[in-house]
UniProtKB/TrEMBL annotation:
Domain EamA: 33-160, 174-310
Localization: Membrane
Membrane topology classification: Multi-pass membrane protein
Residues spanning the membrane: 31-51, 57-77, 89-112, 118-137, 144-162, 174-194, 206-224, 236-261, 268-287, 293-310
Cellular component, GO annotation: membrane
Predominant cellular place of this UniProt entry's protein: membrane
Pfam families, sorted: EamA
Record's protein name: EamA-like transporter family protein
Lineage: superkingdom: Bacteria
Key words of the record: Membrane, Transmembrane, Transmembrane helix
Amino acid sequence: MAADRRAAAAIIMSAIAINERRAELDGAASATLVLLCLLWGLQQVAIKVAMTGFSPVLQGGLRSLGALALLWAWAALRGMRLFERDGTLGLGLLAGLLFAGEFLLVYAGLSYTTVSRSILFLYTAPFLVSVGAHLLLPGERMRGVQAAGLACAFVGVAVAFADGLRLPTNREVIGDLMVLAAAVLWAATTLVIKGSRLVRASSTKVLFYQLAVSGAVMPVASLLMGEAGVTAPGPLALACLAFQIVVVAFASYLAWFWLVARYPAARLSAFTFLTPLFGVLSGALLLGERISVSLAAAMLLVCAGIWLVNRRAPAVGA
């Protein structure tokens, strides 16, 4: 636990070293981005391992509650007013419900499918955001290269589904569909935030809404689903839950929001293709998951699609 807190502090403190807005990514920002993508890729492994001591959906609820407590303390130390009336409560609750549904499906889906497969389907969300923004948000038109990225990712998902259908049972396909549904909810959450007054709220407050609602909903859902709950977790399961709470849901999100406030969002988003790559590799290296030729091809197609979707538009007159 102490090591996890030190890791979280290191991520935050490394981010605080620079405080001005910059037009280009520097070495520190690039290194932080790669580290964040690695942490997000490892999250699914941590969820899988922690299932040895915690039921999936309950685990997700504990993650949100733990991160909520840390975020609340962080906001109090910085004098942030999380409960000030600004007209975002209803929208915040909606974003929180979508966030809760997303992670309920991710955690439940991982009890059926592998880390390697789940992260490929989860990271279809950037493509769904691009389509939704094109249809719903003014000024967010999809360019030709983004459409090519969408097509590339669609082929990758189709290849991954076909690979799952060749497996001995349909368990993986059930989990794949659950995680794909989670990606839809992730995209919906992003569009709600981008298309409403939540976009003008502080990132800390938006994250607070999401953690608070999911922390309330997921333990109740776990009870209604008849999950076993906490089942004598060992040190490794506890460490994996602590990693999710302290490093991923708290520290990494704060570091990401810090980067978004200081560097161009398009440049930052271009790095997200690394997350499914790290996720697939960590599932294979740490859990011994099988990576077939088809799944490897699907991974490359999805990563290439993410890169194309987030590719920066050429400057006018260039």
